């Protein structure tokens, strides 16, 4: 029995190698001059597409340098105001300021008169006064008959006199040593009141006064001890802008 089994096992490979008589192997007839064609089975087989995938995380390089600052963009809309912050601590007391200029006076005015007549005996003669109506801060010097400017600015001046009949009246309103306006009356049978006014731009320490001018004729102004006929007035209109 064992021997029969061994013989069957030896014959099994031969049976498997024998081609089946019912199916012959395929053959393709072609001429020798024809181009070679791949078998049908080979034509149906497609090679798979190979795509290379690079993992960028593995190839990540070092961090580059910081680029240049870009141009600023347009400002945005203004936001709503924030809440008021808490009150801060009280600051320390500051230093005392420089002392002010005590000589800087924003006002200046005067009004003076003369109760005595005057005959001019010199070629030029300053008219002095003996009566004070107003002399704010003593800017008018009664001994010299001159107003001294301590507050630069625009001033208004006015002089009034009474002429002497049959005598000439010739006066100048002076700014320092220069004549500004004239007050003149020819000799006449009767005496009259004469007036002259002017506005002057004065600098510090300028002088304004009245001067008699004698020519060939006698120059005189009239007054008496009872009434005041001769007056000289001036006041600051606008101080200069410092």
TrEMBL record:
GO terms for cellular component: collagen trimer. Residues 60-71 have a biased composition (Basic and acidic residues). Residues 1-17 form the signal peptide. It is found in: Secreted, Extracellular space, Extracellular matrix. Residues 60-100 are annotated as: Disordered. SMART domains: C1Q. Residues 103-242 form the C1q domain. Keywords: Collagen, Extracellular matrix, Secreted, Signal. It comes from the Eukaryota. This is C1q domain-containing protein. It comes from Anabas testudineus (Climbing perch).
């Amino acid at each position: 029995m064992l021997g029969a089994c061994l013989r069957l096992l030896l014959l099994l490979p031969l049976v498997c190698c024998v081609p089946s008589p019912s199916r012959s192997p395929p053959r393709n007839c072609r001429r020798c001059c024809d181009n070679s064609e791949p078998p049908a089975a080979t034509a149906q087989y497609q090679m798979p597409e190979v795509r290379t995938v690079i993992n960028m995380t593995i190839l990540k390089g070092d961090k580059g340098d910081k680029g240049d600052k870009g141009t600023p963009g347009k400002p945005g809309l203004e936001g709503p105001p924030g809440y008021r912050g808490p009150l801060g601590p009280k600051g320390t007391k500051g230093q005392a300021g420089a002392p002010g200029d005590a000589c800087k006076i924003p006002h200046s005015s005067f009004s003076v008169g003369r109760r005595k007549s005057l005959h001019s005996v010199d070629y030029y003669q300053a008219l002095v006064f003996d009566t004070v109506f107003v002399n704010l801060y003593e800017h008018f010097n009664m001994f010299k008959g001159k107003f001294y400017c301590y507050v630069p600015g625009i001033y208004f001046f006015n002089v009034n006199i009474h002429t002497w009949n049959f005598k000439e009246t010739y006066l100048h309103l002076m700014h320092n040593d220069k004549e500004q306006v004239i007050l003149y009356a020819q000799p006449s049978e009767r005496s009259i009141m004469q007036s002259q006014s002017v506005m002057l731009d004065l600098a510090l320490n300028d002088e304004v006064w009245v001067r008699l001018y004698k020519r060939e004729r006698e120059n005189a102004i009239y007054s008496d001890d009872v009434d005041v006929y001769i007056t000289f007035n001036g006041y600051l209109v606008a101080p200069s802008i410092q």
